[in-house]
Design brief:
about 325 residues; alpha/beta; Rossmann fold; 2 domains; 5-stranded parallel sheet; 4-stranded parallel sheet; 12 helices; mannose-6-phosphate isomerase activity; SIS_dom_sf; SIS_PGI/PMI_1; glucose-6-phosphate isomerase activity
Length: about 325
């Protein structure tokens, strides 16, 4: 029986090509004037690329915040660039955030594949970077390379950052050389009937550990949780005094990370293994922040995909999300 009815595997294998394509989607899209802050307003797979952008621009003079909700709660003004980010273009929270950004006179760029947001971009004469779907059932959560490429492309076009477009090309070329499928299949087999708990160094908590956790939720249709070192050593790990679940720890380790965090990882792993809980330490690959983040995401796209197949389910549909939206109508 064919489980992958929408051929998600093809979209995963094509992921490295998103970075170069994204620059075409961003071509000619720019804003004028001073920009002190960048806000990404979106939900789900249209929001977490904002967390990656925040990590990528860490240490620069550009502040990046991510808004997941109906209104933009951070202070914004005419010197703020707000990316209104919704793959479908119909996300109600994001449409609400658009009106909020307009009221506060922020600079706005819409990033979408169509829908209501495309209509609003025309109505209000707002710049838009339009993503072209690879095929009708292509999922927003699979478009991370498109979103981050558009964000960086627009910021480069607008002179907010120096031209970083070569960084995107290099990431795509790097991922194209990565061969992850067989290793991913093996880890997926180990995760059957386990609850994945994903930990990372603190710098990569939202920009990676949370995203990997989401891949298990949406692709594999299982519960999964995330946190980061060193914070978890001050609270969460105490919760494993009494084991109430069949857990498997996945620790995303940055080879260039803080030595004390590396020691914490080793000690924590030993503690959990003494409790007969499996621990998989996954070294992040690559020499740059984007390389490390996207190579790890790419690997776990395969892991979560093959875990879905192990459970005998189609990885593409998110029926509960769609049912919930209908219940809201």
């Amino acid at each position: 029986m064919l489980l992958d009815k929408s051929n998600m595997l093809e979209s995963i294998r094509n992921f490295p090509g998103q970075f170069e394509k994204s620059l075409k989607f961003a071509a000619g899209v720019r804003v004028e004037g001073r920009i002190d802050k960048v806000v990404v307003a979106g939900m789900g797979g249209s929001a977490f690329p904002g967390d990656i952008l925040k990590a990528y621009l860490a240490g620069t003079n550009i502040s990046v915040e991510v808004c997941r909700g109906y209104s933009i709660t951070t202070m914004i003004d005419e010197n703020t660039l707000v990316f209104i980010s919704s793959f479908s273009g119909n996300t109600e929270e994001t449409i609400s955030a658009l009106y909020n950004a307009m009221e506060k006179k922020a600079k706005i760029v819409i990033v979408t594949a169509g829908g209501r947001l495309e209509e609003l971009s025309r109505k209000h004469n707002l710049p838009i970077a339009k993503i072209v779907k690879e095929f009708p059932t292509f999922q927003p959560r699979a478009a991370t390379g498109y979103f981050i490429g558009i964000f960086i492309g627009v910021l480069s076009n607008s002179g907010v950052i120096s031209d970083k477009k070569t960084d995107l090309i290099e990431v795509g070329n790097f991922l194209a050389k990565c061969e992850f499928e067989e290793e991913a299949k093996q880890l997926a087999k180990q995760l059957v009937d386990r609850i994945p708990i994903v930990y990372a160094h603190d710098f990569y908590e939202k920009s990676l550990a949370m995203i990997v956790k989401i891949k298990f939720n949406e692709n594999s249709k299982v519960q999964a949780f995330y946190n980061s070192f060193p914070e978890l050593n001050h609270n969460e790990m105490v919760g494993f005094t009494l084991i109430k679940g069949n857990y498997h720890f996945i620790i995303l380790d940055d080879p260039a990370g803080h030595e004390r965090i590396k020691k914490r990882i080793q000690i924590f792993s030993n503690y959990m293994r003494q409790k007969d809980l499996p621990v998989s330490i996954i070294p992040m690959q690559g020499d740059t922040v984007l390389g490390k983040i996207f190579s790890t995401i790419y690997f776990f796209e395969f892991v979560s995909y093959y875990l879905a197949l192990e459970y005998g389910i189609d990885p593409t549909p998110v029926d509960m999300v769609e049912d919930f939206k209908r219940a809201l109508e």
